[in-house]
Amino acid sequence: MELTTVKEALEIILKNTHDFGTEEVDFLDAVGRILKEDIVADRDFPPFDRVSMDGIAISSEEFNKGQREFKIEGVQAAGSEQLLLQNKNNCIEAMTGAILPKNTDAVIQYEQLEITNGIAKILIDEVKYLKNVHKKGLDKKQGDVLIYKNTLISSAEIGVLATVGKSKVKVAKQPKVMIVSTGNELVKVSEVPAEHQIRRSNVFTLVSLLNKFKIKAETAHILDNKETLLTKIDSFLNKYDVLIFSGAVSKGKFDFIPEVLDTLGVEKLFHRVKQKPGKPFWFGKKRNTTIFAFPGNPVSTFVSCLKYFYPWYQKSVGLNFKNKQQAILSEDFSFKQGLTYFLQVKLNVEEGKLLATPVAGKGSGDLANLVDADAFLELPDDRSNFTKGEVFPILMYRSF
């Protein structure tokens, strides 16, 4: 059977994205979610001529006529109604964030004043019109778009949502995801495994990887029994938007997943990809349920989620999914199997350049090796030798 290339696999996956709909959430719960409406200014930004320094508000015309000492009429506090300067030869103390008093057009900060017995003396020789005044509507006008639809909401957007009174905000609905592990050799994390057993780990790695996008995935474990697999997977297909499997997709005697999915009427879109690790990867769909069946080796599962599930989800919810990150190979490297190779690397920055140093591992089952690396460098399948200084795409999984 001819293998699907990495490029072809990703193209097929991105042609089979799914719109999960929208929902309204409290704006404080929107961090990490995908905005599904334009957020517009409900009034000018700032909404009034705003004082930007603590000091006195004056008429610059009077200063430019030669006046340097101004009697203080009152205090314009932030949040108080606008005062009126009764006499243009006087001034009003004005605090940062306050509305600029009427009949004034400049603010002189306290550091440039001497105040004695209610008289403010200006110590500088020049005062420009609108000095230390943030003009009404300078940033944005009423009706301007402040945040565009399909933005990933961060703390910066939360402040804007609060400013325009959006206590509820429309976001992309999250997919319902079930992550399934299979195998008689797996036991619970809390159990002490027998000599021939291991604890479940891949499903929890996947749960954590999906949590980056605020997806709250459920997990299940099914023993290597074909009838049990058929019954449980059939129920999952009717309840979830996404099924992610870890294991049982290769050629072993108990690798039943492809056969079970075929029996249940799931359309296979490809099986086996020209890559290492992760070659046995299976992908398909049934109605509105998308199935990612990753190989069981932990490094295979990990890199496949980064390479395929992440962009599928991002396109589904309207995010820009293109991976533009690249790194420079820091030393010569050879790989002779004619597959796209996802090389585990350690990253560091030298003279502003991101360098990737290969990390020696013991294959796709070496889970602990992921801890020693920061990313995967994607090496093309048409070459065997890769030279120090060459630049390649990178899949980062650690903040750097």
SSE-based structural type: alpha/beta
Oligomeric state of shown chains: single chain
Strand order within the widest beta sheet: 7-4-6-5-9-8
Low-pLDDT segments, ≥5 res:
none
Number of helices: 8
Approximate strand percentage: 25-35%
What is the fourth-level CATH superfamily of the largest domain?
MoaB/Mog-like domain
The biggest beta sheet is recorded as: 6 strands, mixed
Question: What is the overall shape?
Answer: elongated
Count of spatially separate domains: 4
**CATH third-level topology of the largest domain:** Molybdenum Cofactor Biosythetic Enzyme, Chain A
How many extended strands?
A: 28
Helix content: 10-25%
CATH architecture level-2 label of the largest domain: 3-Layer(aba) Sandwich
| CATH C-level label of the largest domain | Alpha Beta
Average predicted local confidence, pLDDT: 91
Distance between the termini: 40 Å
User: Could you tell me the radius of gyration in angstroms?
Assistant: 31 Å
